[in-house]
Write a structure and sequence with these properties.
The complex is a heterodimer.
Chain A (H helix, E strand, L loop, with lengths): L2 E2 L2 H8 L5 E4 L8 H9 L5 E5 L4 H8 L3 E6 L11 H9 L6 E4 L2 H12 L4 E4 L7 H4 L4 E4 L6 E6 L5 E10 L4 E3 L6 H7 L2 E10 L10 E3 L6 E4 L17 H12 L1 H13 L7 H4 L5
Parallel strand pairs in A: 1-13, 2-3, 2-9, 3-4, 4-5, 9-11, 11-13
Antiparallel strand pairs in A: 6-8, 7-8, 9-10, 10-12
Chain B lengths: L5 H11 L6 E4 L3 H11 L6 E3 L4 E2 L13 H5 L3 E2 L2 H10 L5 E4 L3 E2 L5 E2 L2 E3 L4 E4 L6 H7 L2 E5 L25 H4 L7 E5 L3 E5 L6 E6 L5 H6 L6 E8 L5 H18 L2
Parallel strand pairs in B: 1-2, 1-5, 5-10, 10-11, 13-14
Antiparallel strand pairs in B: 3-4, 6-7, 8-9, 11-12, 12-13
Helix pairs in contact in B: 1-2
Classes of the chains: A alpha/beta, B alpha/beta.
């Protein structure tokens, strides 16, 4: 059964220095509040896994939490670069950052293999491209039935999976609807999990019997953090704050401006600061 | 003739390449504008798919990211990301993949990974995302990119997604059955692969652009087809629809 914890306790209990941590959410439901708590608790030497390390990993990496990044697309979607990730990769600031780079298809398959308790994933991919030359984790296998060569990547089995969901019931079952990305796979592939939610309710009120519901016994900790996905969004609660994504380009371009913003908006704040984003924004 | 910008001409020429019965995997940015323009003009039944899992989406404003809520709200259905890549893309359900890129070569291979050495990059770009598998698993691919010597390169530092391969022969050698890049739409002209060599060849020049400009903005010596035509200028309707959706988008994103 999931434990109901406050955010600081959940992160302190589940996330340790040196862990591999996957915070997922494909544009939608990105666990920003949890990421900020990891930054406040000054976790170090993390291997951060995420298909699209956008602003949340820009912040974690810029604050020195990571030693390695496993990813498939690192940018500010529709805006441009993630400047802190670039600074780490290009200049080693604030520390050297190792990278393991894949394609989206490979990472999605690798999460699925993790959830399915398989050692690796295979796909018809990486054909005629250079990534396998610089990532020795990408290998291939011959189909025993047809002889076709298929690409393989190791399954992703994070120490900790962190996601943001719409809501939980009082048992700790959680609901995701809308763009659900690979969060179900991440939760089922991870050893420990934290799920932040917009609200805790008596009844999940799913809109379909096929909505994504993760049973309480698959989850380590449930934490109620209204607005906790901001500046990404929560389907039916609040919209993506596209103007913040655009503004981040300027905030993050310069090291001092970035550090000042983090001091003011993350280090000096707590999870309650997210609540304002859950209110007053049209769903 | 109505006034139009080169960027508008590029988007409109790209939109025209799409057919009403296409199932199109849409890249973010310029491809997304072109695909939605097609849907709002000559191809109302086109199926637009974004890698966030949204199938048959009909956004009223252009998304800033591939996963804006607008895409899910207006989609026929939304599937998980693993399902999108496994069943729909790898499953062979997509007729056209529409991509942009940072750098391209004469065989329409794309680089969106790195400038300089991979391990000591001069500029670290976002990476491949969905593109490496879009490039080989869709029936064909269209590419939209503005021309310039830093983008249209003689030799790419890194191949993120395969066009026709470094020599134009690699698709056949690697037994890839899809057609690869059949059209490259730029702000000056349209390229299509040569039937023999697969080298991207200029087949249509946009009104107001010249051969000299195309040569000047290309890092290799571009070939021109025997019969180069002039791209029809944007119609008033095309311009109106494009400007409308761009204005709605700007207002919605509150930049």
């Amino acid at each position: 059964m999931a434990k109901f914890l406050d955010l600081a306790s959940a992160v302190s209990e589940m996330v340790h220095d040196g862990d591999t941590v996957a915070m997922e959410g494909f544009t939608h439901l990105i666990p920003f509040a949890a990421g900020h708590e990891v930054i406040r608790q000054k976790k170090r030497d993390l291997t951060l896994i995420r298909m699209t390390p956008d602003l949340i990993y820009d912040q974690l990496i810029g604050m020195g939490c990571a030693k390695k990044l496993v990813f498939s697309w690192g940018g500010n979607p529709g805006v441009g670069s993630t400047h802190r990730i670039r600074d780490a990769v290009e200049n080693g600031w604030p520390n050297q950052l190792a990278i393991e780079e894949h394609s989206h298809a490979a990472m999605a398959n690798a999460y699925e293999a993790g959830a399915a308790n398989l050692p690796f994933a295979m796909l018809r991919g990486y054909i005629g491209v250079d990534l396998p030359k610089v990532n020795d984790r990408i290998k291939s296998i011959t189909c025993p039935y047809t002889g076709e060569r298929l690409a393989t990547v190791p399954a992703i089995r994070p120490d900790v999976g962190i996601i943001h969901a719409l809501r939980a019931d009082r048992e700790g079952n959680v609901l995701l609807e809308g763009i659900t990305g690979c969060q179900k796979e991440v939760v089922l592939a991870s050893k420990r999990t934290i799920v932040t939610v917009e609200e805790i309710v008596d009844n999940l009120n799913t809109t379909s019997p096929n909505s994504v519901v993760l049973p309480t016994w698959t989850i380590g900790a449930v934490v109620c953090v209204p607005g906790g996905a901001h500046p990404s969004y929560a389907h039916g609660y609040y919209k993506r704050d596209n103007s913040f994504y655009i503004a981040w380009d300027k905030i993050s371009r310069d090291r001092e401006t970035f550090l000042a913003w983090m001091e003011e908006n993350v280090l000096k704040k707590g999870p309650d600061a997210f609540a304002v984003h859950a209110k007053g924004r049209a769903a | 003739m109505t006034d139009f910008t080169r960027n508008e001409m590029m988007t409109i020429a790209a939109a025209r390449a799409l057919r009403n019965d296409d199932v199109c995997f849409v890249g973010i940015g310029a491809p997304s504008a072109a695909c939605n323009l097609a849907r709002l003009t000559h191809a109302p039944d086109i199926t637009l798919i974004y890698e966030s899992g949204t199938i048959a989406t009909k956004p009223n404003v252009l998304p800033l990211s591939i996963g804006d809520g607008e895409l899910c709200d207006t989609a026929l259905t939304t599937v998980s990301v693993p399902e999108m890549f496994r069943y729909w893309l790898q499953g062979g359900r997509i007729s056209v993949g529409f991509l942009g890129g940072a750098q391209i070569d004469r065989f329409a291979n794309l680089n969106t990974t790195v400038v300089g050495d991979y391990h000591k990059p001069k500029v670290r770009l976002p990476g491949g995302g969905g593109a490496p598998e879009i490039a080989t698993n869709c029936g064909e691919t269209f590419i939209i990119m503005a021309m310039g010597k830093r983008a249209f390169m003689e030799k790419l530092p890194f191949i993120t997604s395969m066009g026709h391969g470094p020599t134009g022969k690699e698709r056949e050698q690697l037994k890839v059955r899809s057609k690869g890049p059949t059209r490259l739409i730029t702000d000056l002209c349209i390229f299509e692969p040569d039937a023999e060599t697969n080298e991207m060849t200029v087949t249509s020049i946009h009104p107001g652009a010249t051969r000299e400009e195309i040569i000047e903005n290309c890092g290799w010596s571009p070939r021109f087809a025997a019969n180069v035509v002039e791209t029809p200028a944007p119609t008033a309707k095309e311009l109106e629809v494009l400007r409308d959706i761009q204005a709605r988008t700007k207002a919605a994103h509150g930049a």
